[in-house]
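This entry is listed below:
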Amino acid sequence: MSDLDALRGTAERYAQGADRRDKALWREVLADDVEITGPGFAISGLEANLGSIDHLAQAFTVTRHIVHDMDVRVDGDSAEGETRSTAEHHLTTPEGDMLLVWAIRYQDQWRRIGDSWKFTRRALIVDWEELRPLKGKIA
């Protein structure tokens, strides 16, 4: 497997972990000293970042994170780049079910640890968001 494939795999496992509320998946792809930042938050350390899974479960009925494309530069056992994604968040509101969609650019840094690539930093940038009524039922 190429480094690019492995790095994309970390982004996809991160997305799966968020959507499945699976902290074990995040443990696979986050370094112990990881820092994740975004609009209004900065969280340092693996254990503190695992708490974000609990926040997702409280804030949204369900989520779907889609990894689109990546620009990555590898230098030995470190890498950096940008991961473009879409995050869809199902909200239940007094007005009905809504879908909050974010167009995301992650500014990422990774470190190779053993045979795996792990995030050491993810800076979430929301380029735009859209809120719209959700039609149909959640299965």
